[in-house]
Amino acid sequence: MNTRHLVDPQLGPFLDALPAFELSAETLAAVRAIVFPSAVDAAAVDAVAMSVRSVPGPPGGAEVGVIIYTPRQSTGPLPCIVHMHGGGYVAGSAASAEPRHRPLALAAGCVIVSVEYRLAPETTFPGAIEDCYAALAWTFANSRTLNIDARRIGVMGESAGGGLAAALALLARDRGEYPLAFQHLIYPMLDDRTCTTPDPHPHTGEFLWTAHKNAFGWASLLGVPPGSADVSSYAAAARAEDLSGLPPTFLSTGALDLFLEEDIEYARRLLRAGVPVELHVYPGAFHAFDLAPDAQVARDANRDSIAALRRALHTGH
Predict the structure, then answer these.
(1) Which of 185, 211, 184, 193 is nearest to 262 (CA)?
(2) Any idea what the CATH number is for the domain that residue 115 is in?
(3) Residues near 315 by Cβ (< 8 Å), separated by ≥ 6?
(4) What is the pLDDT of residues 122-173, one digit of tens each?
(5) H-helix or E-strand spanning residue 81
(6) Residue 31 placed within a domain
(7) What secondary structure letter does DSSP report for 285?
(8) Looking at residue 316, what is its pLDDT?
């Protein structure tokens, strides 16, 4: 595969600066130690308070860490995003999202509760999703103390975090305890069967998140080979047979992202189930392209994302 000619030229310098890494049991510790360069905006630090908490975990399980971001100059209860970080289910952390979460809380006018779920392969399904559900339950139970409007709580995530957000929306629907206002899915990792398709897309997945890494991530989460029978929809949301009754959905991905087709298919099925969907596919964009500081397509994606969040958080549309 050689798709470099399809990459948006403005993304080229960012792509060249990305750290190269292989993903395996032997390299996992080193991959987890990779730090993507980013800085926290000083103005956002002044404007948004951050607190770190441990909250009750799943029944019989350990506590779950959360990081809470709250705009300081807020009046009245605020809407809330419960956020799951990316990292292929095997890496990443809630703390790593601080450079994005502080300005996002300010731009979207909301509280963000970022979940420190357990990682695979040390913890296989359903550990991570039950951690996320416990954090969601705590957010609802403590909404008054957190100055949150419990009627306007939604879920969000990128990559594996987007997969967890989609699975959490399914779990919340099925358990019937916590009504969600929206799900906001950024290039979500939804379908383990992408690892085993006999006809993979010829132009996706060359950069950053490859088919090999995808197979490792899914195998680590599931504890069985990806594509196995009877994989739960709370692990791989695309496995859900019924998507009706899910909250309004924003979904975005890049045209060169390995998850392109599974994401488009999920959006199509949501629409067929009567769920309002806003879908964006960005040309020339690979996985995590929206982190590029100087590319117009990244600015467009972040603009579209924040605009959709503001609508979902404040108007319900």
Answers:
(1) 193
(2) 3.40.50.1820
(3) none
(4) 999 999 999 999 999 999 999 999 999 999 999 999 999 999 999 999 999 9
(5) strand 78-84
(6) no
(7) -
(8) 67
The answer to whether the CB of 11 falls within 8 A of the CB of 284 is yes
pLDDT in tens, 176-202: 999 999 999 999 999 999 999 999 999
Q: How far apart are CA 213 and CA 24, in angstroms?
A: 8
Half-sphere exposure of 197 (CA within 13 A, CB side): 14
Residue 71 is classified by DSSP as: E
How many domains are there within the chain? 1
Closest CA to 265 of 193, 172, 157: 193
Residue 37 resides in a domain = no
| Interval 40-68 mean pLDDT | 94
Alpha carbon distance 233, 289 (integer Å): 27
Six-digit token string for 142: 């403590």
Work out the average pLDDT over 95-106. Answer: 95
Number of H helices, E strands in the chain: 9, 8
pTM above 0.90, yes or no: yes
Of 199, 166, 196, which Cα lies nearest the Cα of 266? 166
Residue 33 falls inside a structural domain: no
User: Please, what is the end-to-end C-alpha distance for the chain in angstroms?
Assistant: 40
Per-residue tokens: 45: 């630090």
> Is 28 inside a domain boundary?
no
pLDDT digits (tens, 9 = 90+) for 262-315: 999 999 999 999 999 999 999 999 999 999 999 999 999 999 999 999 999 998
Range of the domain at 159: 4-17+43-314
Helices (H), 71-147: 98-108, 127-141
